[in-house]
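Lab notebook, bench 4. Still working through the backlog of constructs that have no structural model yet. Next entry is a single chain of 216 residues. Request: give me the structure tokens for it.
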Amino acid sequence: MIHIACVSISGITPELYETLYAKATEQQKEKADRCRHKEDRMRCVVTGALVRYAAESVLSEPNFEVTCSSFGKPYLKKEANFYYNLSHSGAWTVIAYGSSEVGIDIERMLMNTQREEIVSRYFTADEQEYILNGADARRSQRFYQIWTAKESYLKYVGTGLSRPLNSFSVLADEKKLGVRFDTCIWEKEYCMTLCSTEEKSTIQVLRAEQLTGESM
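Model written out:
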């Protein structure tokens, strides 16, 4: 079973930020300190806190030494049975976690003036047809469905954009890829897709205060 937890950075007060910052690892603190914008600093400490929250919910004594694969996918060192993946867009930061590989992507569905160029350049022929054959009101949603599915798959396999987006189809190749894609519209303006081999549980919405461990 794959679990998903979501936290909004909206409304995080300076005092709450300092509490989350104090509980962060030195690596996370250094990353937050390098951020120029307040929202990016918030995302840094929230993503770190989400990893801690997820690990503590399924592991008895989790090791919090984060390392990365050769392609940059993060994982907890010495924790062979814990997998996680993070994504953020706009106000929301999300984590998917469980006992098997996972990828997740969330995107705010904005009016993208480069959408047609992205579709023709990065999507396969069947994906392009799927989007263009939809009613006008559905095209944007279908675009983000395909986009987040592709991103979540590349994060699942851990290769990132070193593998071309148009080298596989999330529509025609799902069985061939050996994964399942679960897409949902989140808060009416976000599209989120989970890539895994397992079923997902219900999505859990957390308050940032819960990540301090003081309001559980």
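Notes after review: The beta strands are 2-8, 66-68, 74-76, 83-89, 92-98, 103-108, 180-186, 190-196, 200-206. The chain has two domains: 1-100+198-216, 101-197. Flag for follow-up if needed.
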